[in-house]
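Duplicate of earlier report; ABC transporter ATP-binding protein input re-posted below.
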Amino acid sequence: MKNYLRLLSYAKPLGSFIVPFVLTSLVASIFGVLNFTLLIPVLRVLFDQVDAQQLSEMLSPGSGLNVVKQFNFYFAKFLSEQGKQGALIFVCGVLAFTIITSNVFKYISVRLLENFKSNMVANLRQEVFNKAIHLHLGFFSNERKGNLISRIVTDVQEVENSIANTFSAAIKELFLFLSFIYALFAISWNLTLFALLVIPISGIFISTLVKKMRHNAGEGQQRLSNLISLMDEVFGGMRVVKGFVAEKFVTEKFREENQAYRESIFSLAARREMASPFSEIMGVFVVIGILLYGGSLILSNDSGLEAAEFITYIGIFSQVMRPAKDISNAFSSAQRGLASGERILSLIDSESSIKDAPDAIELKDFKQNVAFSKVGFSYDSNIQVLKDVDFILPKGKTVALVGSSGGGKSTIADLVPRFYDPTEGEVLIDGINLKNVSQQSLRDLMGIVTQEAVLFNDSIFNNIAFGKNVSEADVIQAAKIANAHDFIMQQAEGYQTIIGDRGTKLSGGQRQRLSIARAILQNPPILILDEATSALDTESEKLVQDALTKLMENRTTLVIAHRLSTIQSADQILVVHRGGIIERGTHEELLQIQDGFYKKLSLMQTL
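Output:
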């Protein structure tokens, strides 16, 4: 119940919806029930059951608030003055009014409900996305992208389809159900007590179903997440799938997940749909019981019910099962929405391990250096990735990290913009621990170019500008510095050319130069270059390296490189191996170390 109310709270302001929705639903329900109660005087006229005494009683006017007495008064007046035909016309006119009024208010309540649903879903989806965007980088390393997309898209949709509809049933259908029950008690309380014996039996059965459905719903949503994750991975890696003739393999994986999803959804649907026929069967048996019991009382003249009232009673009771069935179906369907809601709320409740301190310092500029002091780091496992890392990156200098793969170079680079926090030691900028600096002001000082150029399915202009309000001249200037302007102008629509998903319409070198142009436009004092040329051919590498050289001018740069030829001019080279710095110095100094690790790497690359 706590999660249910919490999900509803995203439709805020909730009060501005609930009050008009309750009022319109109540009015629609009251007039909807009046439609049936008007059958009694119609049937009395048709069956010629209104005698002189009843007519005189009805002709005494009731109070203004007593709608039934007011109706009876005017009905009797029309009957006495204009005869049966006039009374029939009066009743039909009132019936038309109540039907129109009921449906008008029903429509208004539906409009309010749709506004409520759309508002809740939009707010909930925005909250989930906002939360995901601000989680630390390690969260995305451990979480499948398809699973996150599933929570934002399909799980939120399930909340709309189930939770919001349940809320509607809990108010609108409940009002209608109670109105019908009130009318039934007003006609015959003893018959109604007999009829309501079915409700506890139905309630026990449906509550048992609901408990079993929650498990199926949770499993179904997880299976759907797996399907979306698999599709994202397969479609994103289609070149590899086809290159290794793995179509059959991935098809089989998809078939297994798809079948598992089908089974869980079928099991959920089978239990959910069981509630409706069970309620209907119970309702039919009760109607049969009422016909037998009430009919025998009327036939034996032991009941105060007239034939017209009994027929109306049966008509109303046949309708009371509909809102009762809708309420039970809604709460059964809500289990899938609650399972999705729990997955959404678990993401919203996730805490980022990288947080700004309450008194975090806002950096305005970079003055001195970035320093690593006895830094150690490990991910979730107990395996230590870094240990006792000590070095200083002075302002305006270039420090290069080299070494074998998996040695910890990228982890060192990730600690500088505070994508992760060290588990031991500290990283300082201008003598201030990064934990005491606001993340935004820190990252505003940095530009990052990675091995894989991360681009978006948008125009070249927007990929370079990327969220910054800059002029076209600024973008062109950045592209020229990055050696990208010439190839951009050769595109069909120049800077407005859409480059496809992840920039697939461009070559690797072109994508990388756009990434460099984006970093140039940022104009950061600190640069982090993570193997920015390692995946390129010789010609593209030369163009990109040229662009990087221009980018690095007068900037503080931390470079990760596999190709040692690209970092020979670095002010200091750190050789990282198994999480520690085993050698440091300039290119020439490191080559002088006998049996040195750097010297071995250099010799291997020159062979």
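The CA atoms of residues 43 and 49 lie 8 Å apart.

Merging into the original ticket.
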